[in-house]
From TrEMBL:
It is found in: Cytoplasm; Endoplasmic reticulum. The chain holds residues 6 to 446 of 805 of the full protein. GO terms for biological process: SRP-dependent cotranslational protein targeting to membrane, translocation. This is signal-recognition-particle GTPase. Its EC number is 3.6.5.4. It comes from Zingiber officinale (Ginger). GO terms for molecular function: 7S RNA binding; carbohydrate binding; endoplasmic reticulum signal peptide binding; GTP binding; GTPase activity. Transmembrane segments: none annotated. Component of a signal recognition particle (SRP) complex that consists of a 7SL RNA molecule of 300 nucleotides and six protein subunits: SRP72, SRP68, SRP54, SRP19, SRP14 and SRP9. Belongs to the GTP-binding SRP family. SRP54 subfamily. The lineage of its organism: Eukaryota, Viridiplantae, Streptophyta, Embryophyta, Tracheophyta.
Amino acid sequence: LGGSIARALQQMSNATIIDEKVLSECLNEISRALLQSDVQFKLVRDMQANIKRIVNLDELAAGHNKRRIIQQAVFNELCKMLDPGKPSFTPKKGKTSVVMFVGLQGSGKTTTCTKYAYYHQKKGWKPALVCADTFRAGAFDQLKQNATKTKIPYYGSYMESDPVKIAVEGVETFKKENRDLIIVDTSGRHKQEAALFEEMRQVSEATKPDLIIFVMDSSIGQAAFDQAQAFKQSVAVGAVIITKMDGHAKGGGALSAVAATKSPVIFIGTGEHMEEFEVFDVKPFVSRLLGMGDWSGFMDKIHEVVPTDQQPELLQKLSEGSFTLRLMYEQFQNILKMGPIGQVFSMLPGSSSELMPKGHEKESQAKIKRYMTMMDSMTNAELDSTNPKLFNDSRIMRIARGSGRSVRDVMEMMEEYKRLAKIWSLAAANAQADRRHGRSS
Ligand code: GDP
Ligand code: MG
């Protein structure tokens, strides 16, 4: 996605005359990319129309950075689309709130209920889980297992088949125990069918939740809008959680869910484990959707990972835009020191997934160490060069021999270097553009 948007913007900035036609072509290209990213057709069309209204062609023709202007306009529009204008109900610690989860079977409700409870528990809340899914065999066992693992009190039954009755009993029990976050997990069906919606309505009427959270699987593609709308029409959905953002999902469904429910996305699920749960943040999300890289996240990471005394130097290097092998070496040292989570590059598109795929941290560390051994066999001139062409066959062979690795290993490392250098120059360009626009981060 990022690639085709970048391409469209590149073509646009190469054009000498920016007229209606050039802008339209550029927006068409961006729209195609957004559609591929599962943003709903109607939303894309609206965005396109809005941008045509906002962008001033004269200013664009005169401006130095046409790309930046269009990119910023698309960015702002998408951010606006993710903001329904009012925040969702937010439970307060120490006060009893009932939160009901709804969504299709398999969307990740039960997992997300526990993640949500666990997230709050870590912040000192006293959450509790109620299993009102009597439809699926094994539903109570699953919730019980999750709850036991995270030491969260739970309520449910193997015998009772009436979800409304269990929901009410569970909520009453935990209210008496002064639990401040009572979470009701409901059943789902494979389809959006009448029986499911009727059951949801009854549970909602009986437990009077303060907040109803709609859980949606991010991989459902263009179906997102209709599904979200169907739930909103049956119960008073007040917030959305998007799950499975770790897979191949492209995330465009989030825009549909917000548009259909007029409710904000509050969290995203990024894996099966309890910790793989993040507060939803509009700007980084849109940056990633547009393939711009999470710029502010990148700066935060630098501050978090890089030792304080090295930060000014690193930022200076970023502003110069040159990414040398020596710089890569130093960053690898930081990464190894901080462990797999302390990764400067993890927020940037296309980096962490390849250099450090989740669950393969050990292999990644070994790979980084291997790269560093090869770099140890480089000359100072090589380490300080920004020109990959310097590395001709004889240099590559010398480095391989010197480090006891194969020529292929050295070439692989050089590919990795080129990839990171590209990301680095993208980040540098963003930093420069931000400075021109007087922004600080
Ligand atoms: P429910 O039927 O809506 O209650 O869905 P479950 O909570 O049982 O989840 C269905 C499947 O999706 C399970 O295998 C979960 O482990 C998995 N799952 C839930 N959330 C996520 C997520 O954020 N990422 C990934 N990769 N898997 C998830
Ligand atoms: Mg479930």
